[in-house]
Design goal:
This protein is α/β, with parallel strands linked by helices and 299 residues long. The chain has a domain of 206 residues: NAD(P)-binding Rossmann-like Domain (Rossmann fold, 3-Layer(aba) Sandwich), CATH 3.40.50. The chain has ten helices and ten strands. The protein has a six-stranded parallel β-sheet, sandwiched between helices. It has a two-stranded parallel ribbon with strand order 6-8. A two-stranded parallel ribbon has the order 7-10. It is globular. The structure holds NADP nicotinamide-adenine-dinucleotide phosphate.
């Protein structure tokens, strides 16, 4: 295990799909990985006490309410889980830290952008999160609010790291954007895939490497960690399943149609600036697929 820095690194959401890979690759004696009970970010007093007691010098905040569908049922409700965890939780942490003593990293999402024709992606690091909640999913809006809180309170002393459809080779608790469809395909119940939606993906191993660099060098600002190209769900998932199964597989596809309002259609992230600043080259979607296969994909 490579020790990323002399920091005491608090990782929230370390049991989740993305955070668990970061701690698998880079976690060490200097990492604090409390459960969501020990460090419930919606509990302001608990957060204050924990930080005062443990004195981390860096925080990577993966903790979030991530069920996009359920979040939609909470739209405009600022007392329910999604808003409380994604917005008030971030506020609670920020209220309890001294930014001079500590580097704060907020994990964010492409869903802070609308993906609408009027302002299409792929979005770059300078693009600001959408302000109008009607143009976003409720989940996306809460993550956008969190970005604004981080930026207005900490500015360049903090980092915002946006990711999109994060994927990894193995993780039992939750299937990702590639392994989910693979499992459905094997069960004979894969839905038609959108052939007209622009997306990119994040290889979680590459994100982990980028985070290690950001924490070790206390790099502030907005970063995008994603494939170097964009694709469509149909193209991407067809290639992935064909490669995993070792033969050309024809899948069904469809246009987004009515679902266009629900998912960003002209979305995707772009990461040129992040790659330059961090000195890391991010893989293309094809290269990510090959690396996943090399590691042994499991569903
Ligand atoms: N997955 C995606 O497609 C995607 C895409 C873009 C960005 N992101 C962002 O990436 C980050 C990680 O996502 P993920 O997919 O790894 O999420 P996940 O698998 O759903 O895990 C969420 C993590 O947050 C923790 N958590 C939830 N409520 C909490 C609370 N009140 N206090 C402390 N911890 C709490 C959970 O702990 P318990 O398990 O104990 O509840 C879990 O460890 C999130 O910030 C998400 O917004 C994800």
């Amino acid at each position: 295990m490579v020790k990323i820095s002399d920091d005491t690194v608090l990782v929230t959401g370390a049991s989740g799909m993305v955070g668990s890979r970061f701690v698998e690759l880079y976690g060490g004696d200097n990492f604090l990985m409390p459960s969501s009970r020990e460090f419930d970010i919606t509990d302001k007093e608990k957060v204050r006490r924990f930080l005062k007691d443990k004195k981390p010098t860096a925080i990577v905040n993966f903790a979030a309410y991530t069920n996009v569908g359920n979040a939609e049922e909470q739209r405009n409700d600022r007392t329910s889980g999604c808003y409380r965890i994604n917005v008030l939780g971030v506020e609670n942490i920020i209220d309890s830290i001294d930014p001079e003593m500590m580097h704060f990293v907020q994990i964010s999402t492409d869903m802070v952008f609308s993906g609408r024709m009027e302002k299409p992606g792929p979005y770059n690091e300078s693009d600001l999160a959408e302000k109008e909640s009607v143009k976003l999913t409720w989940y996306g809006f809460t993550k956008a609010e969190a970005e604004r809180i981080v930026l207005s309170n900490l500015g360049k002393r903090a980092s915002i790291v946006r990711i999109i459809y994060p994927v990894r080779a193995k993780y039992k608790n939750k299937l990702d954007y590639l392994r989910g469809p693979l499992k459905k395909y094997r069960e004979g119940r894969l839905y038609p895939l959108f052939s007209d939606q622009q997306i990119s993906i994040t290889f979680i191993d590459e994100l982990s490497n980028a985070l290690a660099n950001i924490v070790a060098n206390r790099r502030g600002g907005v970063f995008h960690v994603c494939s170097s190209d964009t694709t469509t769900p149909y193209e991407l998932i067809s290639k992935f399943i064909s490669r995993v199964e070792g033969r050309k597989i024809e899948l069904d596809y469809s246009p987004m149609g009515e679902l266009e309002g629900r998912y960003p259609r002209y979305g995707g992230l772009e990461s040129k600036k992040t790659q330059e600043v961090l000195g890391i080259r991010f893989r293309s979607t094809d290269e990510i697929i090959e690396e996943l296969i090399l590691q042994g994909v499991s569903v």
